[in-house]
């Protein structure tokens, strides 16, 4: 019995659905629940990096929202305002993207929320909910603007709300007891309230157009919270240092309107002890912000289960394709992404050991090995040194009768005359590939810009004699069989 392929072409309608992701504790590729978010989180610049929101706000000196407005500050503010409706006792609310329904409330002034959501909407997929993207934006803001000194672990699994949450975002004019009550409802103690406000107000400032009662009303006027790099960039403890030294320009601490000096009331609520510790020790400031901001983005509605922190995947296949050729062979191609080092080993060889369709895993002729020596890189835009990935491209021809059910990846490094070989088997089962139905990119086309239509051609394996037929279905569902 020999498998042949029938090639099918059909018109299909593309759709976009918001969803949520849940990962297993032990990573096995592929994991549709976290793979895309892992790429967004770590592939920030370089090869294959066009699908990360980091390109909007990292490095921190990017100011895409206009004069006097910082994208990183807006993204961090959006995450807090989205979470701030949470009631941790009842389990209602949290970081769930309900902010999209709440932008017209008086507790959410400014156009930054809408602009943040528009930026992030470009990355909304069934595997990346808007709530997960908002949390990811906060991670980029803190991690990027601190050059990795604040490294918030990122978990996935947030579920998008279908309507607005309760009100309850703290306002500058509220008295201290109301602030304490609001933060306790969100799950933060009075001491943690001080830390979270200081961490949030190390970026950005107050816009006059949004808060004319605090700073002069002018669309171009922004009074920053501190003076680090003109106050727009630099996630550090300057906001605490300047407050303690009474030299701050923070309009919520020493503004002309005493009613709205909420930062002063909050920072002094424990006699200045916590803000003093944050001012005295940059490391304490960074650790406090890491802990509290992680808590903030992980505050989710009851019943929502977050994944383990997403770590960089050591070996990750990408863009795997099998194309059926007219001579009874199939061309298998794709990329293998390896994590680090910063400088690629010029003496590295990557081998792909294919498993035949039967699933056998021996070292005989049924397994094809392909050596790869050239690589392209991608990296994270902060940290010293930054996390780096190397991409190795491969393409090899395999008999259709043999097929592919998966493969192992062998990495061979030679240095100073010594050779080290490491085999990656993806949890012992190999990296899977199903060649029952394989797309044929050269025979497909799309019109997504205009009407969301795709003419998709696929090859389908059939347990029939060694023949190949082509079935084409057009948009009118007329079927033609061509030899």
Structure description:
- It is a single chain.
- The protein folds into two domains: 138 residues, Immunoglobulin-like, CATH 2.60.40; 263 residues, Peroxidase, domain 1, CATH 1.10.520.
- 23% of the residues lie in helices and 23% in strands.
- The chain has eleven helices and 18 strands.
- The strands form four sheets. Strands 1, 14, 15, 16, 17 and 18 form a six-stranded mixed beta sheet that branches.
- Helix 3 packs across helix 5 and helix 7 packs across helix 11.
- The chain is elongated, with a radius of gyration of 27 Å.
- The two termini are 21 Å apart.
Question: What is this structure, in a nutshell?
Answer:
This protein has 483 residues and is α+β, with helices and mostly antiparallel strands.
